[in-house]
Amino acid sequence: MERIYNFSAGPAILPEEVLEQARDEMLNWQGCGMSVMEMSHRGKEFMGIAAQAEADLRELMAIPANYKVLFLQGGASSQFAMVPMNLLRGKTGADYANTGQWSKKAIKEAKRYCTVNIAASSEDANFSYAPSQDKWRLDPQAAYVHYTPNETIGGVEFNWVPATGDVPLVADMSSNILSRPVDVKRYGLIYAGAQKNIGPAGLTLAMVCEDLVGETLPGTPTMFDYKTHVDNESMYNTPPTYGIYIAGLVFKWLKRKGGLAKMEELNIAKANVLYSYLDSTEFYGCPTATSDRSRMNVPFTLKDAALDEEFLKQAKPRGLAQLKGHRSVGGMRASIYNAMPIEGVRALVEFMKEFEKSHG
Ligand SMILES: *Cc1c(COP(=O)(O)O)cnc(C)c1O
């Protein structure tokens, strides 16, 4: 079978060039006689791979020197606990924006450690929009403000960065990191699971301002303390070596493609192909507020949900895969991360038009 267009929300599509390079280097990385998977994480080969990955990421995102880049494990879900454990720093409360399923999980976990103030919420409209700044009720005493710039399940994305005064802003960028330029210094901490827009599952990235590191809640496990990873350059224990290697190849690919400004252009173009079609027809619907539609995850519905199964069944042999919406919302969802070529989005829209013609 040919490679398909994989619209999965995560683990997700990776650039074909990256997979080809990984294949070519699988048995013998650059003449060293072994696979990256078989290398000591403390050997010079792997240390070089990790250092290069960090350098390329720093360049791509223009990460300031006073921010530490950490290669962690445990997924974004572990960050839901690590954030309060590390960032409360003597305070007892934090602000959270409640904009979807992932915010909700972050909030639930934070409540184990502190008082959570819901600073903004879109629950009143089934998480279909991003609450505007004038609706936020921030607590100036909060230790930090947490939000989810792209809600992977609801398909809602913030196209602006919340202003939080002197209170550090924390972002779960799992599903839109590297999709556009980001002004890192506006954040105290950015984190992301790798399996959406970075690389394979098992690696979690964090970028943290060094001022925020070093004061944890009593009882914080060693592995949950950012300082452990800062002091040991993410090598306190065995890091997810192969994941870091693939992420490094993705960073190189992004640089070759022209960097994040270019990615943003492409991502806007791709999203427009799909949204403009969705807006042009009554046969399909899109539940998200026009101004807050995600460029990465596009939920859509068939007006007649009884056709859902048939839609998926006919999409599959055309190489259009993993379009089923999240179980909590139903309908369809097309995730169109950096690695999804515009041809894939066009092929999807072509199919949607034909399906409309034969079933509308
Ligand atoms: C996928 C996702 C998570 C969960 O990531 P894990 O790595 O599975 O823990 C958290 N937040 C967002 C925004 C996500 O898209």
Polypeptide structure, described:
This protein has helices spanning 16-24, 44-61, 75-87, 101-110, 226-231, 241-256, 259-280, 308-315, 342-359; strands spanning 5-6, 67-72, 93-98, 115-121, 145-147, 150-151, 156-157, 169-172, 189-193, 204-209, 284-285, 297-302, 320-321, 332-335. With 360 residues, it is α/β, with parallel strands linked by helices. Helix 4 (101-110) links the parallel strand 3 (93-98) and strand 4. It contains nine helices and 14 strands. The two termini are 31 Å apart. Strands 2-10-9-8-5-3-4 form a seven-stranded mixed β-sheet. The protein has a three-stranded antiparallel β-sheet with strand order 11-12-14, covered by helices on one side. A two-stranded parallel ribbon has the order 1-13. The model has no long low-confidence stretch (mean pLDDT 97). Helix 7 (259-280) packs parallel to helix 9 (342-359). The chain has two domains: 16-256, Type I PLP-dependent aspartate aminotransferase-like (Major domain) (Aspartate Aminotransferase, domain 2, 3-Layer(aba) Sandwich); 259-359, Aspartate Aminotransferase, domain 1. Bound molecules: pyridoxal-5'-phosphate. The site of pyridoxal-5'-phosphate (PLP) has 12 residues, from helix 3.
